[in-house]
Amino acid sequence: MKKILIGSLLLLCVILFAEESRSYRLINADVGTATEIDGERVMTLIGNVHFFYGETEFFSNTAELYDTKKITKLSGDVRIIEDSLSLCADNVTYLRLSEKLHFSGDVLIREDHADSTFRTFAADSVNYYRQIGELEAHNNVTVFDERESINGNCGFLKYDINDGYGYLLKRPEMCMQDSIKISAEKIEYFKEFSKIAANFDVITESPDFKITSDFLLYFDIEQKAIFLGQPKFISEYADAVADEIRIHFEEQKIQKAELENNCKVEFSDEPNEKRESWISSGQMQFYFSDGTIKVCDAMEEVRSHYFQKEGDDKDFVINDTNGKKMKIIFDQGKIEEIIINQKVDGVYRFNR
Questions:
Q1: Among the four 26, 104, 275, 345, which has the fewest Cβ within 10 Å?
Q2: Which residues pair with 232 in a beta bridge?
Q3: In Å, how far are 21, 191, 196, 206, 293 from 248, measured between CA atoms?
Q4: What pTM, to 2 d.p., does this model score?
Q5: For 154, how many CA atoms within 13 A lie in the half-sphere containing its CB?
Q6: Does residue 114 have a pLDDT over 90?
Q7: How many C-beta atoms surround the C-beta of residue 311 within 10 A?
Q8: What is the C-alpha radius of gyration for the chain, rounded to an integer number of angstroms?
Q9: Average pLDDT, integer, range 100-126
């Protein structure tokens, strides 16, 4: 009975202290002590700590609240709930004057969406600026979006909660629906990942192809990607370059590729062999089925060189042709038929 009375008196003192400072609303603490050092009032809370600042809810094992400096330090299983955000870490320092929270040690932040999906951020440390709704994550950063099936990692991330805009730096990588992977010096995302931009040393990979470029724009709703800055498309049977490459997807599988200006494609008869056949033109369109090239249409000043090695069921052939349009039919990635028309001229060489 005596212990219960002492505990109740301690909690009462804590509550009276909190009401006097009018800065927080205490819900629970196993132990609470109030001290004053050099004019600074300090409240120390230990065990099952639970309190509010305004509408924001705080949980931790221990907490120190500095009333004059307006600083709160929390440690041990810290969890903060604010609107749709849940912020967890080993340690948190809350600077109430600037409304900045610094999280360190096993940081995990979860943002819940209205459609019951969520987005998470994990890092070694995070700064959260409450007044402007901005997060900065440092070291071993990972991000996951359940609704868009996107995950990424980097050394630094900045995220504007209100605008839905963020960017990743320090060797960032992003993977969409476990099929398309992007790496670059900088990756930006806009409005719930509706658009993704990657800058400098961009590498885009899928099970069917790889594209290198200086710049990438990916549009989620249209399922379209635009590659600029010396883009190069690489696959088992063909490599392609152009001033601009546009890729169209369906369910994250490539369906169509459009090449614009200074286009050149080099082919091989076997996977990953030397590319000895080529086509150049002003424009090209490639059509795919299940990730494999089926048809290529080339337009505007088409030039081609076709090389066929002699084999058991084929003759040695070299064919150099110029024309205005060309269509190439592929079978399992290999050239099956070439159709060229309008202003055709060429040289054909065969083994006798």
A1: 345
A2: 212, 241
A3: 60, 21, 15, 13, 13
A4: 0.84
A5: 28
A6: no
A7: 9
A8: 31
A9: 95
